[in-house]
Amino acid sequence: MPSCANMGRNLPQPGFWMAVLLVALVLIVQVVLSIPLGILNLVIEHGLHQPPPHLERQPLLVGGINLVAFGAAIALGLRLNRLPLRHAFPIGQITALQVVGVAVTLLGGNVLLSEVDNVFRALLPLPQWLWNLVKDLFLSQDKLFSRIFLMVIVAPLGEELLCRGIILRGLLSRHRPAVAVVLTALLFAALHCNPWQFLSALFLGIAFGWFYLRTGSIGLCVLAHAFCNGVAIVVAALPLNIPGLVGTEDYTKVVFQPWWLDCAGLVLVLVGLWTFRRAAPPAQTPPAQAPPIIGLNKTG
Question: Is 279 in a helix, a strand, or coil?
């Protein structure tokens, strides 16, 4: 596998503080575009005396807002690097074994992160307004296609193209790979503006960054993100009742998962990481060639 430099993974921009500004731009655009929805809720509730539609909790509208917000930040990142969109993001060659390793890792990761979420909510109870938002955007049994649009299409594309496609590649030109991955994961977690999601987003950000370092493929990061979110949709829709994972009616009440499920999640993560490491060995820098010795190749 060629080196990072040969694969064109790094970008001159952004540095860390410019990356912070890109994240801030996403959040600002999201807030600005959400204000009209809040005003419309108030008009319907107090002006028309009807129940508010809670437009800020509609997956299709949230997906549209995120398209604009992430699109603006990605466009600015490309502008900073003077990159045309069609040549901006390396897709790379993705092997079937790499995909298997990623999928198994994220299946186990979802189980473990679900338990981390349970512990976090036990320490810091979830407020009712946030539970209503989570339920409508991620757990509602209706609005299936809207949730797929938001979670499997918009979120993976927007977040990965910005975080791994621009921010990580800019930080890799300034920091050691481990530092660049962690800094990018912290910004990725901050994008979610939710302390209850911070640890999960941080772990996933580190995992997606490692996938990129090993393969040089933004496409694999997008697929991994879409798979992770898609699993959450599928699990929520299944008629299962596993304590702490699915089937809990009131998400504000903390129920822990059975020990065997946590152990299974840990085994899946370890097997997935081992599989992915075998399928995507670290990049090797080709050895430097010795300069030719002048004067020894004379013909007689």
Answer: helix
Q: Which of 49, 41, 61 is nearest to 129 (CA)?
A: 41
Spell out the alpha helix ranges (H) of 141-217: 144-148, 155-162, 169-172, 177-191, 195-215
pLDDT confidence band for 270 (50 / 70 / 90): very high
Tokens of 44: 């319907």
CA distance 218 to 287: 27
Residue 35 Cα distances to 52, 57, 61, 89, 188, angstroms: 15, 13, 12, 32, 23
**Look-up: residue for tokens 């962690």?**
182
A 10 A CB-CB count for 84 gives 7
- For residues 75 and 88, what is the distance between their CA atoms, to the nearest angstrom? 11
pTM of this structure:
0.87
Helices (H) and strands (E) in the chain, counts: 11, 0
pLDDT band at 69 (very low <50, low <70, confident <90, very high): very high
Amino acid of residue 51: P
